[in-house]
Design a protein that fits this description.
Elements: H1 2-34, E1 195-199, E2 207-208, E3 218-221, E4 224-226, E5 229-233, E6 238-241, E7 252-260, E8 270-273, E9 291-298, E10 314-320, E11 328-331, E12 341-348, E13 351-356, E14 359-364, E15 378-381, E16 393-402, H2 408-417
Antiparallel strand pairs: 1-16, 2-3, 3-6, 4-5, 5-16, 6-15, 7-12, 7-16, 8-9, 8-15, 9-10, 10-11, 12-13, 13-14
């Protein structure tokens, strides 16, 4: 009985295992069918691959080829050949330093702009000529006149002009006449160093101001200065300039703007020198006196060989270091007019020239000596060294003394510019 029961038990175990194997086989078959190509025959085993070469650029170490994975049953795939390392890039060449830029050339200073009318002239860069001051505008009805423009600044001073006329009060609603404009003032300037003395007669009282140097100030006797001119009556009225200002010069130019109202001979525009009386007096017997004078009218005479003339009533300039019989003279060809006239006398060495209205009219080339030989203790405008000669009648707008003999072109330009326009060269 025990043997039979053991047989039965063994049989049941075998049946149960068989059933389990059947179920497992069925599951494996189902799983195998669900995978793609799972039914392909298994390949033969292959040779294990060589390690790949490193791919780093030249200069770095090639990467060590990886270890070939161990093949499965058939061995791993052949290892790919390692990529050759790239060549290291060549270092860039250093950039060459740039060349320093050459310094620019300095710009030349510009010439001063000419001063405009009714406005201040711009400052000259190189002594530009200042414009004339603009005139004051006439005031409107019941309005104030505008102020006159200032004189131009720069090389040449602009002349101040008269202010505008006040406006009328007759306009509608006008309650008072407009105020006249103020005259423009003269602009500042750079004056030529050739100008040694300048008398513009713009002051008041008895001082004839020298605008170049205060040591050259003169004294007005009897006459009056106003409006930029000194007026002399012809009777004991004249201007005294300092002694020694003529003999201090080697070459010179004497220049004036003159309005002569006299009618007699021998009146003087200027007379520089000495006489037999001295002490500020006129002489009576100047037979050995030194002097240089200019008269607007001289008679026909034969005072010396060099000064003999048969034509009367002409301007005359005379130079001597030893009285009238030794004079060197030159004459203008025509009589002096009554309008304001520009006159100039130049002395250079032993040559003397006379200019009227900017034009040369006479020459004397026989001067006995130079200006330094004159003992000039009496230097007068409007007065003669001789007591018998009457004083100058008329007005002198401006008188200048240069320390050089100006050229004909410079004198012509000065005459054209008129008084109150000083040269810059």
């Amino acid at each position: 009985m025990s043997v039979g029961r053991e047989f039965v038990t063994l049989f049941n175990v075998m049946v149960r295992q068989r059933n389990a194997w059947s179920l497992a086989a069925a599951g494996l078959a189902f799983w195998a069918c669900a995978l793609p190509e799972n039914n392909a025959p298994e390949p033969a085993a292959q040779t294990g691959g060589t390690s790949s070469q490193g791919g780093a650029p030249q200069g770095g170490s090639d990467a060590t080829g990886g270890t070939n994975a161990t093949g499965g049953t058939g061995g791993g795939d052949t290892g790919g050949t390692g990529t050759t390392g790239g060549t290291g890039a060549t270092g860039g060449t250093g950039t060459t330093g740039g060349t320093g830029t050459t310094g620019g050339t300095g710009t030349t200073g510009g010439t001063g702009t000419t001063g405009g009318n009714s406005g201040a002239g711009m400052t000259g860069g190189a002594g530009g000529k200042g414009g004339t001051a603009g005139a004051g505008v006439t005031g409107g009805n019941s309005g104030a006149g505008m102020t006159g423009g200032a004189g131009g600044q720069g090389g040449t001073a602009g002349a101040g002009v008269t202010g505008g006329t006040g406006g009328s009060a007759s306009g509608a609603g006008g309650s008072a006449a407009g105020k006249g404009g103020t005259g423009g003032s003269a602009g500042s300037s750079s004056v030529c160093s050739c100008l040694a003395h300048r008398y513009a007669f713009e002051g008041s009282g008895t001082t004839a101001v020298d605008s170049i140097t205060t040591s050259g100030n003169g004294t007005i006797t009897g006459g009056s200065q106003t409006g930029g001119a000194v007026t002399l009556s012809g009777t004991e009225q004249y201007v005294t300039l300092p002694a020694g200002i003529i003999s201090a010069l080697t070459n010179a130019t004497f220049e004036a703007w003159v309005t002569w109202t006299g009618s007699s001979d021998w009146q003087r525009i200027f007379d520089f020198g000495n006489n037999d009386a001295g002490n500020g007096n006129q002489g009576t017997n100047n037979t050995a006196s030194p002097y240089l004078f200019l008269t607007p009218r001289a008679p026909a005479s034969n005072r010396s060989t060099a000064c003999t003339t048969t034509t009367a009533s002409r301007p005359r300039v005379a130079f001597t270091v030893n009285g009238p019989t030794n004079e060197a003279c030159t004459f203008a060809p025509a009589a002096f007019g009554t309008a304001m006239t520009h006159v100039a006398v130049t002395v250079s060495g032993t040559t003397m020239n006379l200019y009227i209205a900017g034009a040369p009219v006479g020459t004397a080339s026989t001067l006995p000596m130079g200006l330094g030989s004159i003992t000039d203790t009496h230097n007068w405008l409007g007065r003669s060294q001789y007591a018998a000669d009457s004083e100058f009648a008329g007005s002198i707008a401006e008188f200048r003394i240069y320390n050089t003999a100006r050229s004909a072109a410079q004198i012509s330009a000065s005459a054209a510019a008129g008084p109150n326009t000083v040269p810059t060269q």
